[in-house]
Amino acid sequence: MLCEENVMRFGLESCAASRHNVGMKKSDLICPTCNAGYRRIELTSRPGTKGEYRCMFCDEVLEKFDGSTDVAIRLTVQPERTFEADVGSS
Ligand SMILES: [Zn+2]
What we know:
It is a single chain. The chain contains one helix and five strands. The model has no long low-confidence stretch (mean pLDDT 81). By secondary structure, it is mainly beta. A three-stranded antiparallel beta sheet has the order 1-2-5, with no helix packed on it. A two-stranded antiparallel ribbon has the order 3-4. The structure holds zinc ion (ZN). Zinc ion (ZN) is lined by residues 31, 33-34, 36, 55, 57-58, 60. Zinc ion binds next to loops. It comes from Bradyrhizobium erythrophlei.
């Protein structure tokens, strides 16, 4: 009568975990003009779209993509509203 259950404890982690996080880079972008904050996620393992990303508040070009990697950018911090400050002096 042999009971060898502890063989199962090894070998499970090494197969499953190591594949997913490869080729994913995260970083943050700050718009130099209006200080909006963006999160940038780049998937280096697959091709993306060629083009550029503009700030959705001030239209500043934040990054240009060459299409070799897939880059997703999304807003995380709204800019302070300094634009509409001077209204109503006449
Ligand atoms: Zn901006």
